[in-house]
Amino acid sequence: MKQILTVANKEFHDGLRNRWLVSITLIFALLSVGLTYFGAAASGEMGITSLSTTIASLASLAVFLIPLIALLLSYDSFVGEQESGTLLLLLTYPLSKTQLLLGKFIGQGSIIALATLIGFGASAVLLYFQLEDNAIVNAFSLFILSAVLLGLSFTAISYLISLSVSEKSKAAGFALITWFLFALAFDLALLALLVGVEDGISQTGLTQLMMLNPADIFRLVNLAGLDSSDVNGALAVAINASLSQGQLITALTAWVAIPLTLAIFIFRRKKL
Amino acid sequence: MTTPIVSLTDAGKSYNKLDALQSVTMTLGEGEVLGLFGHNGAGKTTMMKLILGVISPSRGQVAVMGMAPDSKEAWHCRTKVGYLPENVSFYEQLTGLEVLTYFAKLKGFNKKQAIDLLEQVGITHAMKRQVKTYSKGMRQRLGLAQAFIGEPKLLLLDEPTVGLDPIATGDFYRTVDQLKSQGSSVILCSHVLPGVEQHIDRAMILSSGQLLAMGSLAELRQQAALPVEIKAHGLNGAIASHDHLSNFISPVCSQTLNVPEAEKISVLKTLLGFDNIEDIHVESANLEQVYQHYLALHAQKQQAQGQS
After folding, report:
1. Nearest to A94 among B76, B87, B89 (CB)
2. Distance, CA of B179 to CA of B162 (rounded, Å)
3. What does DSSP assign to residue B127?
4. Average pLDDT of span A153-174
5. How far apart are the C-alpha atoms of A106 and A108, rounded to whole Å?
6. pLDDT single digits (tens) A8-20
7. pLDDT value at position B213?
C-alpha cells in the first residue's frame, strides 16, 4: 500500500507541476459558470437559466471535454516511461506491476476528480446562492459524480492504449481515435441505425447498445431526470426506456473497473 | 562454502526462436566484481534482466541470494539490489533531489538518504535543478546514486562510465572498490574500457548470446596464450642477427618482440646480456587484446561450422 501511495503522490505532483490541475479546473469553471449565466443567450435572455437547461448544456459539453482531457493526461503514462527507460528500472524495485498501475491511476485520477469537483462545483455554488434551491445540490452531485467516473473510465482506457503500443506517438494517435469513436462516431452510428433501419431496433435494444459507450451512459445519467424538451436526438428515445440512476451509475463504474482490470492483465503479460 | 550471491545454472532466454542468451553457468561470490563484456546484442542486458528478475529464464535456473529473482519470495531481496540501466533518462521535469527521493522511497528510505547519496556522487550543487538542465555526466551520476540506494549487496551496472569525465570515472571506480571492500558484489557490464582491468576480479566474455570465456584476467591471458610484447632500445641490428631472438620479431616493427609467456624470462635474460641495451619495455596482453582474441576465435569457429 505504501508503494502505491508513493507512486500516486508522484503522479499527483506531476499533475500539479505541469499545471494540468490548474488548467483543467479553470476550463471547467469558466465553461460551467459561462453556461450557467449565458446558456439562454440564444433565446434572447441573460442571467441564470433553469436548472435543467444548465445541466443539459453542461453534460453535452463535458461529454466531449472530459474524455479528451483524461486521454491527453494519461496516454503516455506507460509508453513514455518505457521510452525513457524508467519503466524497466521501476520494475527492478520492490514494486509490483499492479502497484505501479494502481498508483498511477490514483494519482492521475485524483487530478481529474479534483478538477471536476472544483471546476463544476464552482458553478453549483454560484447557482445555489442565486436560486437557493436544494434540487441544485442533488442535480450537481449526480453530475459531478458521473463526470468523475467518466474521467476515471477514460483514464483507464488510456492506460490500455499506453500499455498496448510501443511508441508515444502511436499512443497519441490511438488516443485521438478512441476519443473520436466514443464521443462522436458512436452516436452518429446509433442515429443512423435508428433512422435508417425501420423497426431495426427497439427502445430497450437501443438503451442496451448505449451501455457500450461510457460517454452515452454519462449522458443518460444526467439527462434522464430532466424535462425532455431540453433533450433531443437518439437520447430522447432512449430516455423513455431508461434504466434507474443506480443502474446507470453501476454501469459507469463498471466502465472504470473493467478497463482497469484489463490494463493490469495486459501489463502483467507485457514483455520488457 | 557460503552461498553465492548470484548463480546461473544452464540459464538461457529465447525470444520466439531467437536465442538472446544460450545456456550460461556462472556464480558470483560475496565481494566479487565481475566484468561482463560483449558487443551490443551479445546478451549482456538479457543476462542482467534475468538476474534482476524482470524476465524469467526460458530454461535453466537463476538464483539471487538463494532465491529465484522472479518469484514472490525474492521480493524483499530487491531492496538489496541496485541497478543502473544502460539508457535511462529520468523524469526531466523533476529536480535531481525529487527523482532520487522518489526512488529512495520506493526502496523504503527517505529524503535524507537521498541527499547523502547525491553528495556521494558529487551533484549536491545541482540537486534543486530540473534534470533536463543536467549534462550527460550529471545524469549518469544521478543514475549511479539511484543504484547505490540502500547500500546494495548486489549491484548491476550497465555501461556505468559512459559520459563520465576521467575524474568522475576515477571517482566511480573508487566507489566500486569501496563497495567491494564492504562485501557488495558488483557486475559491471561494459564494452571493454581501458582502466577497468584493475577493478574487476573476473571477466566474462559474451558474443551473440554465447559465453566465450570466463575467468580472472590472468587465467584468460593464459588460455588465450597471447604473446608478451617486449621492446628493447639501443640494440640496433643485434636482435635481427641473433639466432634465438630473431624468431620473435614482430612483423610490424623490428624493434618489438612478440614472446610467448613461457619464454618471457629467458628472452629478457638474453636481452639483458647485451652491453649496449638502453631500455626495455615489457607489456602483457591487456584486456582488450584478450577480448579481441576470443571474438576472433569465435568468428573462426563459426566460419568453420558454416563451411562444413
Report:
1. B76
2. 20
3. T
4. 95
5. 6
6. 999 999 999 988 8
7. 85
Reduced to 3 states (helix: H, G, I; strand: E, B; else coil), residue B11 is: strand
Instruction: Pull the grid cell for residue B93.
Output: 521535469
B78, B90, B105 ranked by CB distance to A92: nearest: B78
Provide CB contacts within 8 A for A158, sequence distance 6+: A70, A71, A73, A74, A75, A77, A175, A178
Contact A46, A38 (CB under 8 A): yes
Question: Is the pLDDT higher at A169 or at B237?
Answer: A169
What is the helix, strand, coil percentage profile of chain B, to 5?
A: 40, 25, 35
Cα B235 to Cα B232: distance, rounded to the nearest angstrom:
7
Residue type, B43: G
Buried b (16+ CB within 10 A) or exposed e, B286-297: bbebbbebbbee
- pTM for the predicted model, two decimal places: 0.87
3-state helix, strand, coil in chain A (%, to 5): 80, 0, 20
**SS (HEC) of B38-52:** CCCCCCHHHHHHHHH
Q: Does B152 touch chain A (CB under 8 A)?
A: no
- Which residues, at least 6 apart from B304, have a Cβ–Cβ distance to it below 8 Å? none
CB distance B75–A271 less than 8 Å?
no
DSSP state for residue A111 in the 8-state scheme: H
Are B78 and A14 inside 8 Å of each other by CB? no
Chosen for mutation from B45, B84, B106 (greatest number of chain A CBs closer than 10 Å) is B106
Cell of B158: 550497465
Say how far apart CA B81 and CA B172 lie, in whole Å.
18
Q: Which residue of A has its CA nearest to B51?
A: A92
Helix or strand holding residue A142 (H, E): helix A134-164
Select from A86, A94, A271 the Cβ nearest to the Cβ of B107: A94
The dihedral built from the CA positions of residue B289, B294, B295 and B296, taken in this order, carries a sign that is positive
B271 to chain A, closest Cα gap in Å: 56
Pick the closest to residue B90 from B154, B123, B138 (CA basis): B138
A230 touches chain B (CB under 8 A): no
- Using the Cβ of B175 and the Cβ atoms of chain A, whether some distance falls under 8 Å is answered with no
Give me the pLDDT at residue A228, please: 52
A1–B contact, CB cutoff 8 A: no
Contacts of B89 in chain A (CB under 8 A): 84-86
DSSP string covering A12-57, please?
HHHHHHTTHHHHHHHHHHHHHHHHHHHTTGGGT--S---HHHHHHH
d(CA B100, CA B146): 6
Which residue of chain A is at minimal alpha-carbon distance from B105?
A6
Q: Is A19 on the interface with B (CB under 8 A)?
A: no
> Which residues of chain A have a CB within 8 Å of the CB of B75?
94
Q: Which residue has the higher pLDDT, B83 or A237?
A: B83
The DSSP letter of residue B226 is P
The whole-number pLDDT of residue A259 equals 96
Of A10, A84, A94, Cβ closest to residue B78: A94
Residue with cell 467516473: A149
